Please model this.
Amino acid sequence: MKKIYFKEEYCMACRLCEIACLVAHSKSKKIIKAYKEEFPGLTPRLIIEQKGSLSFAIQCRHCKDAPCVEACITGAMKRDKKTGVVSHDKEKCIGCWMCVMSCPFGVILMDIKEKKVATKCDLCADVGSPACVDACPNEALVYKESEKV
Amino acid sequence: MKKSLLFPDFTVIRDPDKCIQCEVCVRQCAFDAHSFDKAANKVETDASKCVSCLRCATMCPTGALTVSEYQQNIRKNKNWTDKQIKELYKQAETGGILLTGMGTDKDYKIIWDHILLDAAQVTNPSIDPLREPMELRTYLGSKPDKIQLKIKNEKLKIEKPLSTFYSPLTKLPPQLKLETPILFSAMSYGAISLNTMRALARASDECGIFYNTGEGGLPKELYKYGKNTIVQVASGRFGVDPDYLDVAAAVEIKVGQGAKPGIGGHLPGEKVTDEISQTRMIPTGTDALSPAPHHDIYSIEDLSQLIYSIKEATEYKKPISVKVAAVHNIAAIASGIVRAGADIVAIDGLRGGTGAAPTRIRDNVGIPIELAIAAVDSRLRGEGIRNRASIIAAGGFRNSADVVKAIALGADAVYIGTAALVAMGCHLCQKCYTGKCNWGIATQDPYLVKRLNPEIASRRLVNLIKAWSHEIKEIMGGMGINAVESLRGNRLRLRGFDLHENELKILDIKPAGESM
Model:
């Protein structure tokens, strides 16, 4: 499956990926409107880790043996057998946050706005290519077929 | 701190309707012009720190930032301009020599813009470069005075290749083969980041041209691009060892640089990181000082000794170039260099760029490259030694038309430095010497270096070289010329417009309106 990979050596911590993610998952999908009207409540679905000059953006790795899927008690978190995408169903989620606890990468976050549910990277399923990848000015994020280990 | 009399160079206008307080500008500015006030949840700007590199304005996701010139000007005065007054204040406050980067921004006449190219009409046909072959391949190096052939004892037959009947007795001196008559200028590791060098090296490899290491040595990692590398031996002798000379395609002895003729170099100790210390072969954290002269060159004979020492060291397999700044006596100097045994003479004009130079030197020393090319080419032709060396012109080439004009004036190829940097993202803020390049080019700060992705940068460089090559072919085709060889020194196809009689004389071109 296609996954988002980061290149630490080119990530400059500008956080434009984070902004693009917020906008892509906002109602209006318009940057200024999203920030001015919806902002407290929008949660980015990726995390930027930074210490000094070392930085990278990380989002759901869509693990093969996803602990979040195992931990989910309602079946809201599920893995598509065909595509391998780990997706989250808002309707089924009850906000127990076991997925948040179990994620080894810490990339499942609490959506504080919408009735306490979890939120995570959906690879911008409805748009085509992930917004964070398109927004990265330095090609530090790459959307490509996963390498077989 | 005492109150400074300096007023800012720029103002930064932030459109409050567009700013989303995302702090991208804060994170991108290495000069700390932007900051975030947590309590007020607001991004603020101190325009006095702005250098107008436009990094923030480019990266701002909403286009909320505009950088413009500071408007509150001192009473207009042609003699005492804002710039003059600011420089006086700066010196009164610091007592120091003014430093700057890039080529001069002074309003000198750009002769390129006063030279017009010819095109074929009616009596001689123009050529369509998309349908017919166009030759841009260029060989740099010494060409023999004459070619002697051995005639083999066979009867000449038209269907067999000529080499069946003749074999050359003359040995061709080593040549550099360029797919297009453009090279990347010398920029040293230290002045520019390793990522920038990687981009230049990769692009040269892909385009079949050359880049130049400058005087800062060659990082081991780039040895694999050796066949596209010209290495420099400068007055500081940084990084020169047998491997360095062996791996390169050519060796250049750097005597001078267009931005600062007669001036040495100084890479401050802060920039000498572990990697740079290894490549330059000096202790980490020590200043890298390049003396103004080579301490072993005080005459043409001394230069000849160095040229032949390097030729001996490289077993006469590589062309040796000598780079000098275009100064008043350039024609005689070039003649001396050719007679000293150089295979290539590189001449860097008044507008040549630099990572750091005293402002007064950069803005006032040297002569324009246009005049220097013409003077040198005429002199070498006059002395009958033009074939002994190739001429590379450098210093402020902005586009392919400049390249065509330079070749028509007599250059074999051109070095581009600033144009290449601009292609990679440089915005000519002239702050290279601070080491805080927000575009990740002229810096060693690990946080800033990451901003230049060599994959993107080399792609952009390749595009630039491709685009210029296409344009050169287009211009040549229009002139009815199908090989760059036929353009070289073809001053008949140039006309001067709005040029003084003396300039026309030195350029040896006719004024516009005068026929062949």
